[in-house]
Amino acid sequence: MDYIIQHFELSQKEFITLGVIARHKKILATRLSRELQLTDEDRLRTWVYKLTEKEIIISRGSKKGTAYLVNPKLLSSAKLNVKPTLKTIETYTLKALVIEDLKINPNSSVTQIFEHLRKEVPREDVQKAVYALYKEGSIDKEGAKAKTVYFLAKKND
Predict the structure, then answer these.
(1) CB count, 10 Å around CB of 54?
(2) Which residue ranges make up each domain of the chain?
(3) CATH architecture of the domain formed by 2-77
(4) How does DSSP assign 39-93, residue by residue?
(5) Burial profile 121-155: b = 16 or more Cβ within 10 angstroms, e = fewer
């Protein structure tokens, strides 16, 4: 935050927003609105617009699925000793991790996959990745609801 104070001029509103995002490392727009205690009339865009324009934060996703995180390029230019976290992992990398996990641990539920990743990635992100992989045909499933387990799809050559 000291680096940002020295290099950027932020309003109190932007500084509060940045503080919430930095604390969570990655936060969904819906949760950010709740944390900022915005009413339906208040627009989140006015709180994040200049931060994204100045490239202090970046956004991923769209609409309710939009997530905000501090720009990794900004963190690297600040030369801080920030430990990497899987919370900010890109979707394609998370999908590759899920596939690797299912190679080692076939017939795993979403909860088990989440636990294999040492709970570093938000459960919702793991669930989205698993569902996307199933929809793409990369993995298959067996069982219903809470008893659903996933495994690698067999390739038809």
Answers:
(1) 16
(2) 2-77, 89-152
(3) Orthogonal Bundle (1.10)
(4) -SSS-THHHHHHHHHTTSEEEESSGGG-EEEE-HHHHHHTT--PPP-GGG--HHH
(5) bbeebbebbbebbeeeebbebeeeeeeebbeeeee
The one-letter amino acid at 72: P
Alpha-carbon distance 75 to 141, whole Å? 39
What pLDDT is attached to residue 76?
65
| pLDDT 10s digits, 40-71 | 667 888 889 899 998 889 998 887 788 899 88
Question: Radius of gyration of the chain from Cα atoms?
Answer: 19
pLDDT of residue 121: 84
pLDDT of amino acid 15:
87
Q: Is 157 exposed, middle or buried (0-12, 13-18, 19+ CB in 10 A)?
A: exposed
Per-residue b/e over 16-48, b at no fewer than 16 CB within 10 Å?
ebbeebbebebbbbeebbebeeeeeeeebeebb
State residue 65's pLDDT score.
81
Residue keyed to tokens 């993995």: 139
**Positions of the chain with pLDDT lower than 50, given as ranges:** 157
Among residues 136, 95, 138, 92, the alpha carbon closest in space to that of 117 is found at 95
Q: Which CATH architecture has domain 89-152?
A: Orthogonal Bundle (1.10)
